[in-house]
């Protein structure tokens, strides 16, 4: 809407800057952070941090603020009386479009946005009510939306008058704490669609700076008010902030913006405001938008390791790093950070082993640089457990697997095979470590007590090794498992500290045992007399090896009846028992196994959902995407054999497609970056067409003879991918 005449719209802001400088002299305070002056701008590090130290896992919790922060309130200035309604405004717009006379509309916009008081006078639902609570912002959202939707369809002088008014509001001299009317104005101004245009970024930056510098109590209100914004408007504000950060990092026209050295506070301010919207989004269940909508893919192209090291060195001090706000970093970028951090740890451990060997005047051996695992297929679990237990000190070295009696050399393919077979055996119901729930299609930890939980530690170590070595696993744990795995994300120094314990809800139980969760939900909504009709106590029963055992959910629970008054407590304690207490020893072993390999500050950057993606990849197969990214050697994509191949593969069932992926790559899961990250290659095999296809899983390569017709290709391909266990050397 602002593109037409954008070049001379503000004469590159020269007339605005002149006005600002004049006001600056009148105010007499050259260091005021609210002044919209380009020279001598404070560095962004002067702004107060929006979140607490991530290392301590004390991320900002809006609801933890006490009620007292709402009072006392600064004196509120009396608002001008404005009576224009949505219908009045729409009538004015229609008349202006028909007649070409925009005077009434121009007067409305120039008056409404001239100051924070005028903004409240126009958009506050009731000017006589204070609206001082987090529950209701008092903003007439419908009127705001109508006014903003119409703004970009007005003449340029109308749009300019709005921006001039915003500058007047931002230049106001603040003598005390902000009022709730000021916060309302900020909330309304953030939704202005004009800030999608780069020509307004200087004004936008100063708006963001003022909002970022508000007190934590003020942020508390803005977060709760923001969660009431409609999904469409919420997403627009988030996208606008992400675009602002991207274009400041990589401007299409650098001359449009002030030099980076003079506006280092732009990106920190925008990121802190974005953190408010991320906090608002997390308060709603389900969230307003997906957590992935906060990813900024532009950050994939900056020096992420420098960001990570700055954060490691300085934490959440005055030195800004995107790692302080991990919600903005995409899962692909986080994977890069984790991989490089893992590689550096591997190199460091290998170097130390080499130095130790040389210092003892022993001959170095290349095998000492790797975690070498030798296993027999017939004793896979026991051999793997013994190997990992004996080589605890080597877990952070590069993994290499050897199957006893087979000639395969591990360039990655044998490692994938080892993971796949081991996971398949461990999770088999007959093994008894995990229970498979058919209703939810996921595994959960068996609550059966045993003398040794080392095999649970093995599964945790396997997951850690998979992440550490960039291998995806076919594990079906519920999201709750990954939440527990990050509780806490760094192993505590005090071994008496409980691990793997997190806040769980009925929603978490629904993802594992939906039938039981539904029953508990029915109990909560039951309208009759719970005590007389259910005759339950705070005692639960579990079957263990054919024996029924009872457990009290609280002291003397067997003597405490469940009533209408205490049923919420009963449900919460029951859920906590099932997902935390009854499996504590099993999960603690699993937790320590995972962190014995993956102990890294990089885990602090991850959400539970992101850990799941790193471990399991994506189960969604898009063979068309694989076709688009496939490379060819000896073939052209237009060759008849290749066309036959893709006709056959795209017509396969999902099961056969997974078998093909497993045959060619060693895994049937899609990595974080999608099919393109597989680097899948089809090579021409000069062998007889009587031969089956051959795969090099280390290199994700399929060797395909030039079969004469589609029927023959399909037959040979199905035979090959259906009999794909074991390795040999050609």
From TrEMBL:
HECT domain boundaries: 391-730
Active site: 698 (glycyl thioester intermediate)
One Pfam family recorded for the sequence: HECT
SUPFAM superfamilies, alphabetized: Hect, E3 ligase catalytic domain
Record SMART domains: HECTc
GO molecular function per UniProt: ligase activity; ubiquitin protein ligase activity
Keywords: Ligase, Phosphoprotein, Transferase, Ubl conjugation pathway
UniProt cross-references to InterPro entries, sorted A to Z: E3A/B/C-like, HECT_dom, Hect_E3_ubiquitin_ligase
Name of the protein this chain belongs to: Probable E3 ubiquitin-protein ligase HECTD2
Organism annotation: Picathartes gymnocephalus (White-necked rockfowl)
């Amino acid at each position: 809407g602002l593109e037409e005449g954008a070049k001379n719209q503000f004469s590159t802001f020269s007339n605005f800057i002149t006005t600002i400088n004049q006001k600056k002299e009148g105010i007499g305070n050259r260091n005021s952070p609210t002044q919209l002056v380009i020279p001598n701008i404070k560095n962004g590090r002067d702004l107060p941090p929006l979140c607490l130290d991530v290392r301590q896992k004390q991320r900002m919790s809006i609801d933890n603020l006490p009620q007292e922060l709402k009072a006392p309130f600064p004196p509120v200035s009396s608002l001008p009386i404005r009576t224009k309604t949505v219908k009045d405004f729409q009538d004015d717009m229609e008349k202006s479009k028909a007649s070409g006379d925009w005077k009434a509309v121009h007067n409305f916009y120039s008056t409404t946005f001239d100051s924070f008081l005028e903004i409240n006078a126009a958009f506050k639902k009731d000017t006589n009510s204070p609206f001082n609570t987090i529950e209701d912002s008092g903003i007439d959202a419908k009127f705001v939306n109508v006014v903003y939707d119409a703004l970009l369809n007005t003449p340029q002088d109308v749009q300019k008058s709005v921006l001039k008014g915003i500058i007047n509001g931002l230049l106001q001299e603040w003598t005390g704490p902000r009022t709730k009317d000021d916060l309302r104005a900020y909330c309304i101004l953030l939704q202005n669609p004009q800030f999608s245009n780069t020509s307004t970024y200087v004004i936008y930056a100063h708006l963001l700076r003022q909002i970022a510098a508000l007190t934590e109590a003020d942020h508390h209100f803005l977060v709760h008010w923001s969660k009431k914004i409609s999904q469409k408007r919420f997403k627009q504000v988030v996208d606008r902030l992400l675009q602002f950060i991207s274009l400041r990092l990589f401007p299409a026209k650098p001359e449009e913006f002030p030099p980076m050295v003079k506006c280092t506070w732009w990106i920190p301010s925008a990121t802190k405001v974005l953190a408010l919207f991320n906090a608002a989004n997390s308060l709603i269940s389900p969230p307003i938008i997906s957590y992935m909508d906060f990813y900024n893919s532009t950050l994939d192209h900056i020096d992420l390791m420098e960001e990570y090291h700055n954060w490691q060195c300085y934490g959440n001090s005055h030195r800004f790093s995107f790692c302080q706000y991990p919600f903005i970093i995409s899962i692909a970028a986080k994977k890069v950070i984790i991989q490089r951090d893992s590689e550096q740890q591997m190199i460091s451990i290998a170097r130390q082993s080499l130095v130790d060997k040389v210092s003892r005047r022993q001959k170095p051996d290349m095998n000492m640089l790797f975690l070498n695992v030798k296993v027999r297929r017939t004793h896979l679990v026991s051999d793997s457990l013994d190997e990992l237990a004996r080589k605890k000190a080597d877990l952070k070295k590069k993994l290499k697997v050897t199957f006893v009696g087979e000639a395969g050399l591990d360039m990655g393919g044998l490692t994938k095979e080892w993971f796949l077979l081991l996971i398949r055996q461990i999770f088999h119901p007959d093994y008894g470590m995990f229970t498979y729930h058919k209703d939810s299609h996921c595994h959960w930890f068996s609550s059966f007590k045993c003398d040794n939980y080392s095999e649970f530690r093995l599964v945790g170590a396997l997951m850690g090794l998979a992440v550490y070595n960039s291998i995806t696993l076919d594990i079906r744990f519920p999201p709750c498992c990954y939440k527990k795995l990050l509780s806490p994300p760094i192993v505590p120094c005090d071994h008496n500290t409980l691990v793997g314990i997190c806040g769980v809800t009925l929603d978490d139980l629904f993802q594992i045992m939906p039938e039981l969760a539904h029953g508990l939900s029915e109990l909560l909504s039951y309208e009759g007399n719970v005590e007389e009709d259910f005759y339950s106590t705070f005692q639960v029963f579990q079957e263990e090896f054919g024996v029924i055992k009872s457990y009290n959910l609280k002291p003397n629970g067997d003597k405490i009846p469940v009533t209408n008054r205490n049923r919420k407590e009963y449900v919460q304690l029951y859920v906590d028992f099932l997902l935390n207490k009854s499996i504590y020893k099993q999960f603690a072993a699993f937790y320590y196994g995972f962190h014995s390999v993956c102990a890294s500050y990089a885990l602090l950057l991850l959400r539970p959902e992101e850990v799941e993606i790193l471990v399991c990849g994506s189960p969604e197969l898009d063979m068309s995407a694989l076709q688009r990214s496939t490379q060819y050697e000896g073939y052209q994509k237009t060759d008849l054999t290749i066309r036959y191949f893709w006709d056959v593969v795209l017509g396969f069932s999902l099961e056969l497609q997974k078998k093909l992926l497993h045959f060619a790559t060693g895994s049937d899961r899609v990595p974080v970056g999608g099919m393109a990250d597989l680097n899948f290659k089809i090579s021409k095999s000069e062998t007889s067409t009587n031969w089956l296809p051959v795969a090099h899983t280390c290199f994700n390569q399929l060797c395909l003879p030039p079969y004469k017709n589609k029927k023959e290709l399909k037959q040979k391909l199905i035979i090959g991918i259906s009999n794909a266990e074991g390795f040999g050397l050609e």
